[in-house]
Protein: FAD-dependent oxidoreductase
Organism: Halomonas elongata
Amino acid sequence: MQLRDDNLRRLDEKVFDVLIVGGGINGASAAAALSGKGVDVALIDRGDFAGGTSMHSSNLVWGGIKYMESGEFSLVRKLCKSRNHLLENYPSAVREIRFLTTIERGFRHHPLVPWLGTWLYWLMGSGFTRLPHYLRPAALKAREPVIETGNALGGFEYSDAYLHDNDARFVFNFVRSALDYGAVAANYVESLGAHREGDLWVVRVHDRIAGKTFDVRSRVLINAAGPWVDEHNQLTHQTTEHRHVFSKGIHLIVPRLTESRRILAFFDDDGRLFFVIPMGPRTCIGTTDTRVDSPEVEVTDEDVSFVLDNINKRLALTTPLNELDVIATRCGVRPLAVKPNGGGDRDFLNLSRKHAIDVDESGRHLSIFGGKLTDCLNVGEEVVATVQRLGIEVAYPDYRWYGEPPASVRDAFLHRAHLMGLDELTDEQAIEPLSTRLWRRYGLKALDLLEAIHRDPRQGERLIEGADYLRCEFELIRRREMVTRLEDFLRRRSKVEQVVPRAMLRDSPGLEEACTILFGEEAQQRLAEYWSAERGEIEADSVRGKLPS
């Protein structure tokens, strides 16, 4: 954990231009934008980066077609432009994907109505994606035999985008970019509150790994704590225009239900959108939309039954899915930004994921409410403009802080990988060539992996059964990705925990070697810590009547 230790020392030694509390998508994109444009930035998170809402999404990068029904056309236009921008600048990570939507009898609109909506949606997205199509039930069945069309009136196909990897990984790459630009970042560092001393914020923080408490000083303080923004504002005595209300959403990860690389969309029994989403060798199904009072949530028996019941009604599966088919779950809250008296009178299910930035000009404090992954580049740019307005020098205001390396560099990597025969090492169950995956995840640093394999062919061996990760990747991850606990890798830097059943992971002989590479002398401690936490979850599920997979 050398990288984390070095950053902790730097947190304690200097005064920063900006300190960001919270390493989800809002905090991570803000850190990358500010540091890329020359601002001296520190970023802390009380857990791991992307450890809250940002690791529980549907992995969709979409323009918010559902908000058209509530008339939020300006928001949809803005999100469509953001989606297009991500597609252009992250071609390896953000991909266009087709949505196949089925409309059943009894739905509130005839299928032609939402189909016409997809055309308006396409136009609002500047015609950036493939054209929509109207489909009769027979055409739906022909495109996707797994759909149960007995009760279908028709449907439509249109395009949006999704993350080819996992959401938490995408978020972490912004953190890694900020580090590359000179920012200081540390996970498992909790803010205990802050106060002003002259022109500075003094934030009392607690290192949750070492147990040490110390102060961090900055000229501007940004509260990007996601669902916990209101909680942290209480610690810093901030009064804001907005607040959060919470919607809980869950997803279930099950064996692959269809070989097609498209998203199946339906309206559940309550009239809400839910999806069947490709997830590597698995399928992700969900989501729910339940109002809750707290960000701390868990999957309940009712949640699981609701998702399984709805999916079994709408898919023509040989054997209906049940609890034993669930490999993993995802459960988090959507923090929805509302005014202090808002969110109660309006239909809760129609509240959008728009973001809001409240600014205390005199105190040089920002609070970021709401938001979603699709809007991350806008959040970064807005934060830079606001920080500059507060008097912080932005040395390189026109620098483009986001995006993948140039295509010429990618092509050079792929050419070298081809000459080495790298793709011959691709696991037979993988959904893409190994060279494509390494470039998407590591960019320029993927060249270091080629060099490692060239020096020692053993570095090209797959280490964990059921997971397409090479031995050389763990050394790179150890040096660059601040993996502090085993879960940080298994759940967030990768999606191994989501696609490999617990029993297979526990029996994997390579997991212990991976831990040794990542943690050295602390390997056995981190491995025991991980399985102890897993056992606690299993026992809790058992009390609630669930069976672990």
In short: The radius of gyration is 23 Å. The mean pLDDT is 93. Residues 407-538 form one domain.
